[in-house]
Amino acid sequence: MHANHSQGSTTDPIVRFEKVTKAFGELTVLRELNFEVGPQEKITIVGPSGSGKTTILRVLMTLEEPNDGVIYVDGEPLWHEEKNGKLVKASEKHLRKVRGKIGMVFQHFNLFPHMTALRNVTEAPVHVLKMPKGDAEERAKMLLDQVGLGDKMEHYPAQLSGGQKQRVAIARALAMRPKVMLFDEVTSALDPELVGEVLNVIRELAEEGDMAMLLVTHEMGFAREVSDRVVFFDKGQVVEQGPPADIFDNPQSERTKAFFSAVLRH
Amino acid sequence: MLGWDWQFTLEILPRLLGGLVVTIEATITGFIIAIILGLFLALGRRSENQWIAQPIGAFVEFIRSTPLLVQLFFFFFVLPRYGLRLPAFVVGTIALGLHYGTYTSEVYRAGIDAIERGQWEAATALNFSPLRVWTGIILPQAIPPMIPALGNYLIGMFKESAQLLAITVTELMLTARVIGTETFRFLEPITMAGLLYFLLSYPSALIVQRLEARYARKS
Amino acid sequence: MPNQGAWVRTRNYVFWIIGLLIVGIAIGVQLITKPPEIAPFDLLPPLIRGLATTIQLAVGGTLLALVVALVAGIGRASKNRLIRTVTGIYVEVFRGSSVLVQMFWIFFVLPLPPFNIELSALQAGILALGLNVGAYGAEVVRGAVQAIDRGQIEASVALNMSPGLMMRRVIIPQATVRMLPPLGNLMIELLKATSLASLITLSDVTFQAASLRQTVGRIPEVFGLLLVIYFFLAFPLTLGVRWLESRRQWA
Questions:
Q1: What is the ipTM of this complex?
Q2: What value does the mean pLDDT take over residues B16-40?
Q3: Is it the case that residue C41 has pLDDT exceeding 70?
Q4: What is d(CA A55, CA A67) in angstroms, rounded to the nearest whole number?
Q5: Chain pair B-C, CB pairs under 8 angstroms
Q6: Are 3 or more Cβ–Cβ pairs between B and A shorter than 8 Å?
Q7: What CATH code is carried by the domain that includes residue B59?
Q8: Of A165, A213, B133, C54, which alpha carbon lies 20 to 30 A from B197's?
Q9: Structural domain span for residue B22
């Protein structure tokens, strides 16, 4: 078990992976992974492509089912439930109950094209959380203001730039009040000049400190700024993890050093 | 099976197959007419001369917006008035070919339009003669993707050829119905006719699907 | 602001459609109020009587086809293998032969043992049209549903939506727009196929024309008028579908 380097928190982890294995056919992407996230911790996962870092997020967001192991979210198992003291496969009801604590922002935004920005943000709170429409709209307006898109509420995704779409996507995920937010390479599909506006929003969220955040990104400078812990992930395993300064300035493992030198070369 | 007379089925099978042969003959003849006519219609519609393009366009729209059956009736009953007493089979295949010629002309138009402008421009820049542009550059690229669509229309014509019974062409469906009215047994002939249509069209449709997949992958 | 040309084109379509409708209604009203004596229009009243049946066939067939297409189409896209196979069999069987064959079968064979189901010509016609066109429609629905971007589904999962909610609020609205032009074209084919019901003794407009031929002769006028009537029914719909196709916003 890796030591938890998060700042100051001694409470139970909000996410815990216990010997989680995930394979796609012949290819094993996660090998008996043990991993923890503190309740307000900001973690960035870096590593070569194909290392499995996105899979960690996807398995947590229930987009992929693990082959083995248990994932705990806020103390409860995600893919399993406890019946008579034993762990059995979770029912749909249980899965949805626990899943509600996780939110995700995707590389390709995945906004609903047939809805305005406002409706994209209110749709799930109204229909999933059963929030009254008025309340949902008020909150949505506040969130869209927060990400700097207060004037674009009635616009459709097709009318927005990539950076604007991604900010709407962030507002949409926030509207569900998750305890853990996942960011899957959220700036990789953006034109370079639009990356900054999205990173600014994420930086603000990190500074507010409310929820745990798990980012997979190639933006190393940003990762260093924002993270409590950086995890270097390769071939399905955690190679090294620690505070940004440790990992970026003083990597211990050969593989970590090799990765960073390759990255820095351009 | 209740009421199904296998003995009877075997007796009528040769007659049904005879009708099927007529169906196939009509289909193939009609298809040949359709693919040739379609090409002329398509080229006509794309003509820069609006005196050619517009009337042909209107003609194509008119044929496509009216049922094949009514066109069959029209040709069958109207042509004799103008002195043309043709056999029903001939009238039927001409009408069939004309009707589907309008559909194939749309396939040709779409296929030709799909060729990037750049191809035309490159060919012109290389000073090809107009004929060479067509035969060497445009058609070789345009035709392969059209084949699945044309194949589907061939299968469609095979099935819709049943309508020729309305003008007394002794194809499969008419044969089945005549057997029924003669013997008062409709179950076997009509079901067998349906089965024969299915046995030929379903495998053909699978082949066309596979062709479509192959062309989709290439692009 | 993109595409001023689209607005002009739309305006042209709308003019055409309105124009044709006005002409059609004007003619219809004229006929009902004062049967004309001039040839060839004196032939119209009997034909118009058949038109009511044609429209019944078209509307009934379309409604049935839509219902069948939605049910079978969603079934074809289902994760459940049994549902997929059963709907697949239905689709291939009804696409494997023509509407006419199916009409004959329903009208001539169904009343016999072992089925013993006797249907009127109108019912048989609507049933055959609905089931046949519904099979083609099912493939359109399936294609539209399966063409929905995977990311939409993942976003819905991330927002903790139930599968039913996702289908209703995310997938179907997007699929519907994609489905409309091909379904519109199928509807036009159905309209033309209603003429086949004349062959199972249903007095639709084609049947009326055929009997006029036997009583009155005047073949070119009768069948010419018949063609024009179908044209006035089908062509506005064709323009409507093309307008829909040009309007696809978020393809």
A1: 0.88
A2: 96
A3: no
A4: 12
A5: 116
A6: no
A7: 1.10.3720.10
A8: C54
A9: 6-218
**Within an 8 Å CB–CB cutoff, is residue A112 touching chain C?**
yes
Q: Is-contact A95 A78, C-beta < 8 A?
A: yes
Query: Does residue B1 lie in a domain region?
Result: no
- A150-190 pLDDT, tens digit per residue, is 999 999 999 999 999 999 999 999 999 999 999 999 999 99
Residues 165-184 of A with CB under 8 A from C: 169, 172-173, 176
Is there a cis peptide before residue C2, judged by omega within 30 degrees of 0?
A: no
B26 within domain boundaries: yes
Tokens 């049910």 correspond to C71
**C-beta of residue C197 within 8 angstroms of C-beta of residue C57:** yes
Per DSSP, the residues of C109-127 read: ITTSTTT-----HHHHHHH
How far is it, in rounded angstroms, from Cα C243 to Cα C240?
5
Which residues contact residue A210 at a Cβ distance below 8 angstroms, ignoring those fewer than 6 apart? Answer: A40
pTM of this prediction?
0.79
Which residues neighbour B217 within 8 Å (Cβ) at sequence distance 6 or greater?
none
The answer for residues whose C-beta is within 8 angstroms of residue A262's C-beta and 6 or more apart is none
Does the beta-carbon distance from B163 to C97 stay under 8 Å?
no
Is C2-140+176-248 a CATH 1.20.1530.20 domain? no
Tally of domains within chain B: 1
Calculate how close chain A gets to C75, using CA atoms only, in Å: 21
* A81 pLDDT more than 90: no
For A108, which residue in chain C has the nearest alpha carbon?
C151
Asked if residue B64 is part of any domain, the answer here is: yes
Q: Which range, of A104-113, A197-206, B79-88, C99-108, averages the lowest pLDDT?
A: B79-88
